[in-house]
Amino acid sequence: MLNYDLIMKNIFTLLMIFVFSSCATIYNQRQYPLKITADKPDTRISYNDKEYSLPAIIPVIRSKSDLNIRVINDSIEKDIIIKSRLDGNFVFGNLFWFPFGHLLDLTTSKRFTYGKDILIKPLESNTTYFVPKVYKSKKGDFNLILSLPLVNLFCFQPQYERTQSSAGMFGIAGGFEYFYKDKKSFQLRADVAISFRLYAEQIGGTVSPRTFASSCYLSFTDNWKSGRFILGYGIKYAVNAWSYYGSWYYDRDDDTDYLIDNKPSRHTKNYSLGFTFNAYYQISKKLHIGIIYSPSVFRISPKSGFLYEHVFSFDLAWKINLFRKK
Questions:
Q1: Cα separation, 291 vs 84, whole angstroms
Q2: What local confidence, expressed as pLDDT, does residue 93 receive?
């Protein structure tokens, strides 16, 4: 017998993922301001039958087609092309929701961009401009970090248990970042990664143990930034927890879970020291996408000694500048 309620729930869940995971569609406006400057004074441009004295901010509409602009400086007049390219929100912002976000964004021109700042050099022979956005940091920058570890992979060694491996979704993290040099920063952050699963562990007619894993850790890292790439390493203090809630049988005919053993629930925690390594790519001024590898190597409690565990997370982070020296 088909469980129509379960089918409708799954369809609704997939629909919500499809609708709300389209990064470019949600965050990008179809028309946006493009700033154009020139390295020579008294430069003007003609675009859409309007003339602008540079520097100027002109309204452009996102499109697959390139922008055609006429540049005028004294006796020099030439046509230039500003290349259209895929926006970072489309390319990287949808990675965690592949392929749903990409499929929806393919239906709209919001996935394209011309950049935000273009520097024109009217005396040079170059007539094609493709300027990737570079986000520069400065010594003294102080940022607030808000982060979502969207996918987590765990490998724990609970006391009196076999090695336990699991995967899950979601978590939360936060912290602060200070740039002590233009390209180097310290980060202090707290992370909570959990093995909560979006979908049921079984479709039906199977036996499955119910377990839960989580890691709460405080880390301090030294980070190096080059262009849009950020690499970091550091130390951490972690509390790795693992729980067992018995083996269950899911009957899809009546949409009910049945506990099939009488083993008591078990809960363990390891208090450990370890390291953390991260790699990020900066998508926009605030948004970053990356991975975190966080191994624990020495257990403090319940029994001290060298013990390896790890958490591997795919992370989405927002960095909000709180202070910048002028």
A1: 29
A2: 55
